Every structure is written in structure tokens, then in C-alpha cells.
Amino acid sequence: SNVHPMLIERIHEFSTEKEIPAELFERLSAGYNHAEVGAKIAAKWNFPDSLVEAIAHHHNPVNSKAEFKPLVYTIYLANAICSLEKDEMTFDQLDDNVLRFFKITSFEQIKHIMTRLSKDFENEKSNI
Known about the structure:
By secondary structure, the protein is mostly helical. The protein has helices at residues 5-17, 22-29, 34-44, 49-56, 69-85, 96-101, 107-126. Helix 3 runs antiparallel to helix 4 (49-56) and helix 4 packs parallel to helix 5. The protein is globular.
């Protein structure tokens, strides 16, 4: 294995302490993505179904159950905005279903949302 032995030991301790099957971490290293692993951990810790669903589908919101789509779409959009700010994705890569849900039709609208969120965040920081 090319994983550092100390990391393997720490993962084992963490999974034992949190009662998470060690196989979950093995699957992660074998190709599971963080959304799948996060959802399994959230379910194990008895998070509400809506949060488990949001974690599981925050990169692929269309696959979420209809009853949870508003929350999943919100989490997806928040995550996408962070990715847009870091130039890790472009507007044309955003999920069309999510854009329609929020009635977003242009990159200008997203930039406006990003500007408002940034200003609100700065205001919150100055109030702490």
C-alpha cells in the first residue's frame, strides 16, 4: 500500500471511536467519493434523512428524492458558488435543473448573488 502507516492507524482509531465500519474508508480509497462516504457517515450518526440526502447529492442534485430537492438544490448551489469563486467550474457547468429551480438565467445573476453573499459575509465578520 502507498498510504502512510500512521494515517492507516489514525483512520482505524477514528472509525473505531465513531463506530464507522473500517470498510467504508477502504471503499473511499478504492474510488468511493466524499459525497457517498459523507452520506453513509451522516446516516450512521442518525442525521435527518434530508441532510443525508443533501450530503449524498450535493454534486449530482438531479438524483435526489423529490421531497428533498429544495434542500439538495440549495446545498448544490452554495457549493457551486464556492467552486465558481475559486475558478474550479464555469457557469455553463451548473446543473440546469437547479438554475431553473432558482430562476437563474445568466451568469450576471450568479455574480450578483456572489457579490451580495460576499458583502453579507464581510458584515458578519465585522460584527463578531
